[in-house]
Amino acid sequence: MGARVIELENVSYTYGGGELLSDVSVQLQPGSFHFLTGPSGAGKTTLLKLCYGALLPTSGRLSVFDQDISSLDRDQLAVLRRRVGVVHQDCQFLDHMTLAENVALPLMVSGRSEASEQDNLTELLSWVGLGARLEAHPPELSGGERQRAALARAVILSPDVVLADEPTGNVDWEMSQRLLRLLVELNRMGKTVLIATHDMSLIRAAKSQVQARVLRISQRKLQLAGADL
Amino acid sequence: MTGPEVNTLLRGDTRANRVVPPTGYTAHLTLFVAGAMAFLAVFALALALASGRIADRWASELAGAATLRINAPAEQLAAQTEAALSVLSQTPGVASARALSAAEQAALLSPWFGPDLPLETLPIPQLIEITEGEPGMDVMGLRLRLGAEVPGAVLDDHTRWREPLVEAAMSLRRLGWISILLIGGATAAMITLAANASLAANAQIIEVLRLVGARDGFIAGAFVRRFTYRAFFGALVGTLLGMTGVLLLPEASDAGGFLTGVGFQGTDWLLPVLIPILGAAVAFFATWAAARRKLKELS
Questions:
Q1: What ipTM does this complex have?
Q2: Domains in chain B: how many in total?
Q3: Residues of A with CB below 8 A from B12's CB?
Q4: Where in the sequence is the domain holding A210, given as residue range(s)?
Q5: Over the stretch A61-87, which tens digit does the pLDDT of each residue have?
Q6: Do B168 and B135 have their domain in common?
Q7: Where a domain ends, among B92, B117, B151?
Q8: Are B51 and B176 found together in one domain?
Q9: Does a structural domain hold residue B115?
Q10: What number of C-beta contacts closer than 8 Å exist between A and B?
Q11: pLDDT in tens, A195-211
Q12: Which domain holds residue B118?
């Protein structure tokens, strides 16, 4: 892995004539833990989407694992995404498949055998506290269970980076702490973690567990970068 | 698209088929369209093949024969017939020539005038049946010689009415094949619409698959296999029903004419087997093209 996992240099993103992000520059080092905060609509989700290639910068340079994301075709982007685990606030699942099948989706799409990974899958689901819910379907899961399942799916391929967009947005305090602990644990395993959240209490709670840096977006710009918690 | 790519798309990872929900109206639509189109294709194929057979038969049956008609007063009829037969016997390319008997001529007229026609009281021309040999005869040369030696002879080599009949049968055959092409095109169009609808309805699934690192080939493959297999099974059922329908048609007979000849004969019965395979191929390429387009749109 290079010196920087994700690097944005003067990145701007425009949609429908309006600029959603303006001249953003930031670097995420391997094994670092970042919070991305700011008011709703500030551009946190947009920045995260840029980081895993769901959106492409209108200008500037964005590289992930030293690859310029704008130069990659769709298949190359797909391969890159296998190294970037993403947890969405609305944690989309395939409702007709079981929880175990949903979590194993990244194995399936990357051509790895689910059978040989069965032990890892069971272990992973136990790690997020869903060992007893393997055969449940997504609509049967609570908000917290869905978030943990999304986290399990995001890390099953052992990605180098985990991006989480408001992972605690739909869960109670206790569950948000549990999710935070899981993300901190991943960081201790060497993963780079970037959490977008507007929940300052989550950031304060993380203070005792991990050395994190806070990135703040306001008025389309990354106004504060690199401030220690 | 290369052969290995087609193979990968068709075989793919069977587990990947699970990512597309197994139900939905597009499933029923594809099955129905493939079945109905295959059913129609069987009949179009039967029509095309039967028309071709009839065109060939008419052409070959009529091409090797000609008729000489002697229009002469009753007292000269026998002499002119004799002269005509003499000319014909010396003409290269004429395998045989014989004058029809009164009974044979009466039999030819009986469908129109009944069996009791008193032929001997009517000025009926004498007919001479000519069978051509190999190579054929020089029709123009024979006409000129007959004109000089047998004034009442009129040579009919059947060209005048053979050509429109054969042309009609050939046109019918062309229409049959055009119908098959149109059926293929309509199937492709409808399966494309169904695939587009399915891809649009499953946009969220595509988004999830992309999020977890699925390549376009994996996503397209899941849809392509689903539609290809549905089209194949729909077309298989439609083909079997169509073949049963053709089997139940009356056997070809002289009394039935053209209509009873519509059907398959001998190895023709193997051709409809290709319809489900072609239907699946049409579905494969239509869905593949639709998927590639949609995935590009959604990126």
A1: 0.84
A2: 2
A3: none
A4: 1-83+159-229
A5: 999 999 999 999 999 999 999 999 999
A6: no
A7: B151
A8: yes
A9: yes
A10: 64
A11: 999 888 888 888 888 88
A12: 72-151
Residues A188 and A103 in one domain: no
Which among B8, B11, B15, B212 is the top mutation candidate for probing chain A, defined by the most A β-carbons within 10 Å of its own β-carbon?
B212
In angstroms, the CA B68 to CA B212 distance is 85
- Cα separation, B21 vs B23, whole angstroms: 6
**Where does a domain end: A156, A183, A204?**
A156
How far is Cα of residue B67 from the mean position of the Cα atoms in its chain? 31
**For testing contact with chain A, the best of B19, B23, B198, B211 (most A CBs within 10 A):** B211
Q: Touching check for B207 and chain A: CB below 8 Å?
A: yes
pLDDT at A58: 94
Contact criterion met (CB < 8 Å) for A81 and B13 = no
Average pLDDT (B176-182) is 91
Average pLDDT value for residue range B225-242: 93
Instruction: Name the burial class of residue B179, with classes exposed (0-12), middle (13-18) and buried (19+) by CB atoms within 10 angstroms of its CB.
Output: middle
Given the DSSP bridges, would you call strands A213-218 and A33-37 parallel, antiparallel or unpaired? parallel
Residues A8 and A51 in one domain: yes
Domains contained in chain A, number: 2
Ramachandran category for residue A203: left, alpha or beta (phi over 0 → left; psi -120 to 50 → alpha)? alpha
From CA B137, how far away is CA B155, in angstroms rounded? 12
Within-domain flag for B157: no
Confidence of residue B236 (pLDDT cuts 50, 70, 90): very high
What's the pLDDT score for residue A229? 45
Q: Does B176 have pLDDT greater than 60?
A: yes
List for chain A the helix, strand, coil content (%; round to 5): 35, 25, 40
Please judge whether A92 and B211 are an interchain contact, meaning their C-beta atoms are less than 8 angstroms apart. yes
Question: pLDDT (tens digit, 9 = 90+) per residue, B18-47?
Answer: 788 776 777 788 889 999 999 999 999 998
